[in-house]
Amino acid sequence: MMEQRQNLRFPVKFRSSFSSVGMVGGEGRVADLSTRGCRIESSIDVQPGASLEVQIMTIEDKPPIQIQAAIVRWSREQQFGLEFEVITPTEWSHLQDTVKQIELEPYERDRQAAELRESS
User: Is 112 exposed, middle or buried (0-12, 13-18, 19+ CB in 10 A)?
Assistant: First the structure.
């Protein structure tokens, strides 16, 4: 039985890198993101229960979101789920802003497309 998520997760395509004590770091792709966690697609094998330090590269010109500790909740078929555990207040607001932007994106895209049509 899947437990219910408290937070909506939004589909994204962000590059990420992660590492943990005693484990070689790796690269992956963040496939969905919420303020509480994310799903990463990666060929690196990680064990549930492991604590990872994660960097999420969001928008090109912005510095990556740094998550000091994220717990691997599940791992299967070259992807794994993370729950964010330790994050600084600065990074937390960066994460919240990013998720808020993703939430607005479909609406924003529609609005911009409408404005473009009107101005042409």
Answer: exposed
Give me the half-sphere count of Cα atoms (radius 13 Å) on the Cβ side of residue 41.
9
The model's confidence at residue 58, banded by pLDDT at 50, 70 and 90, is confident
Q: How far apart are CA 75 and CA 114, in angstroms?
A: 42
Query: What distance in Å separates the CA atoms of residue 105 and residue 103, rounded to the nearest whole number?
Result: 6
Length of the chain counted residue by residue: 120
Q: Does some domain include residue 2?
A: no
Looking at the 3D structure of the chain, how many domains does it have? 1
Task: Give just the sign of the alpha carbon dihedral 75, 18, 39, 6.
Answer: positive
Q: What is the pTM of this model?
A: 0.78
Enclosing domain of residue 113: 10-119
Encode pLDDT of 1-21 as tens digits. 445 555 677 778 888 999 887
